[in-house]
Structure formats: C-alpha cells, structure tokens
Design goal:
Layout (H helix, E strand, L loop, with lengths): L16 H26 L2 H29 L7 H16 L3 H14 L11 E2 L10 H10 L1 H14 L8 H23 L2 H27 L16 E3 L2 H6 L6 H6 L8 H11 L6 E3 H10 L3 E3 L3 E3 L5 E4 L2
Parallel strand pairs: 1-4, 2-3
Antiparallel strand pairs: 4-5, 5-6
C-alpha cells in the first residue's frame, strides 16, 4: 500500500540506541526487585509500598520492555534475523511470552497486513464466531483483560506447532526452545528469590504489563469500525498519555503512525503523527488512554457487521464510528 504521506529518508534509518534502553529497563526492573524485597522484609506499611512499586514497575518498565520488543521485531532497531531474535528473546518472549517467529507471523504479517479487517489476528470477535448461547464469551473477556499475548498463545500456538512439519520446522523448533529457555529463567528466579519477592517483584509486574499492553491494543483499534480492506488511518486510534509514559512505552500511543510506517523507528512517531493530523483531520482520532481503556472495559467485545457492538444477548450497545 502506498503511504498517504511522505517522510524524510532519515526516518527510515534504524535506531540501535533502543538496545541501550532495553538494558536500562532490565536494570530498572532488577533494582525494583531488590527494593521490593527490602520493603517486604520490613513489613507493616512498607508492604503496601512494595506492592505499589511492583504495579508501577509493571505498568512502565516491564511493559516498556515488551514495547521495545515490538520495535525490535519490526526491524526498526537492529538488522539481521539473529540480532532481532536475540532482542526479541529478552523482550517479547521474556515478558509477553510470544516467541520471535510466532510474533512475526501473528503480528507483523497478519495484524499489519489485515489490520482491523475480518482477517486481522487482533480484532474484535465477530458475532457469528462466538457460538450458540455465547458460552465462550466470559472466557473471551478474561483473556482480553489479561493480555492478547496470553490469549494468542493459548488459542493458536500449539495448533500452529502441530500443523504440517510440526517440530521438524526450524522456526517452530526455535520458538519452542525460546519458550522453554524463558520458562527456565522464571524457575531460576523462583528458586533464588523468596516466594513473596518472586510473587510481588516478578509475577505481579508481568501481569500488570500484560494488562497495559492489552489495553493499548484494544484502544488502538477496537473503537473503529472493521473494514473490508485495511485502512491504517480510519482503522486506528491514537491515545494520549503523559510524556514520561511515552518514554517508557516507546511512543506506542502514536499507533496510527506505526501502522502507516511499521518499520520506522518509534522516536519519529510524534512528528509523523502531526503530519497525519494535518493531512487527514477528519479521519485521525486521538483519545485519552484512561477513557479509551474504560470504554473497552465496559463495552461488549462482539461486533456485528463490522460496526455495531452487541452484548452476549445480541442487543446493540454501541455503534463504532
């Protein structure tokens, strides 16, 4: 698809400085674990401080690791499959539990190629898919809340692994090994750390990060109608967040710019967003993140005819515009 706007050639250059930010974020998480351990050992009111620190770490730092992995796997940070696989291992797989090759197929190929269309891997469930009596709807809502990465792994990864060729396929074998390696790192952390520190310093931040990433994804697309053909501007929404949040989340809030230029380094998203806003003032949309997250929490997750949200009883609750 031809780009609706033009950007300078330097915007297409990779940004290897993001590797340094990945190291920084991992360092911050490790420091947070040490601080949380100290607060939990102190006891009393300090325990609440430890839990608050864990939530903040998950929402900013651990989610930020996942968003950096998103950039790495799109090729905007380093070149070459080996380098991208290594970066994805310590980001996408480590905190979102999605291995590199599965991510490339699920996100880069299907989501970006068919964004907000019936073929999109990250879209609202169509009414005809939910089944008689909508028996699976509660499970669907829970997986939406806990994160699209877990939802996708739970519903697709094993089916993918056991299709044609199975583990004889090099990419599938590499994905399984990376998941096992990450699992071993979490087991090692469980063995080394006190149980309470592991639960609050490791598990809680990861769960919080999954929720944050999931609500970004839902806010970026679920408030726009599904279309027959991909339309990166009419099919995407930006969300407004404070500047320090954008720092940690690699400007993922500027999601329309990302869909117009998927392989461009994220530091250029704010500038590109302004060009999109000026060129397409009627089609561009940006809403406050918390407002978008709340709407996606309370609204139904079933879509009829691509534009009407219906509840589990088939009653129309909202029209997507």
């Amino acid at each position: 698809m031809q780009s609706p706007i033009e950007i300078p050639e330097e915007c297409h250059q990779r940004d290897p400085r993001q590797v340094g930010r990945l190291v920084l974020f991992w360092s911050l998480w490790l420091l947070a674990i040490l601080a949380i351990d100290g607060l939990l050992r102190t006891g009393g009111a300090a325990v609440a401080g430890g839990i608050a620190l864990a939530i903040a770490t998950g929402a900013l730092v651990v989610a930020g690791i996942g968003f950096l992995g998103h950039d790495i796997a799109h090729g905007s940070v380093v070149a070459g499959e080996r380098a991208m696989r290594a970066g994805a291992f310590f980001s996408l797989t480590a905190v979102l539990f999605v291995p590199y090759f599965l991510w490339v197929r699920w996100h880069n190929a299907f989501h970006h190629r068919y964004a907000n269309t019936p073929r999109d891997s990250d879209r609202l469930l169509r009414e005809e898919e939910i089944g008689a009596g909508l028996a699976s709807y509660p499970v669907y809502r829970v997986t939406n809340l806990l994160g699209f990465s877990l939802q996708y792994v739970a519903t697709r990864v094993w089916r993918t692994l056991y299709r044609a060729k199975g583990l004889a396929d090099r990419k599938k074998r590499a994905d399984v090994l990376s998941l096992l390696a990450i699992a071993s790192l979490y087991v090692a952390a469980f063995v080394v750390l006190p149980a309470a520190t592991f639960a609050v310093g490791v598990v809680l931040p990861v769960l919080v990060s999954l929720v944050v990433v999931s609500y970004y994804i839902q806010s970026n697309h679920f408030d726009r109608p599904q279309t027959a053909k991909p339309d990166p501007i009419r099919g995407s929404s930006d969300v407004s967040v404070p500047g320090f949040v954008d720092f940690f989340h690699s400007h993922f809030s500027r999601h329309t710019a990302h869909h117009v230029f998927p392989s461009v380094a994220s530091r250029h998203y704010p500038w590109i967003t302004e060009r999109i806003r000026e060129t397409f003032p009627d089609d561009y949309r940006c809403v406050p993140f918390l407002a978008a997250a709340w709407r996606n929490l309370v609204r139904p997750k079933i879509v009829r005819n691509g534009r009407f949200l219906v509840d589990r009883h088939g009653t129309v609750r909202h029209e997507l515009t």
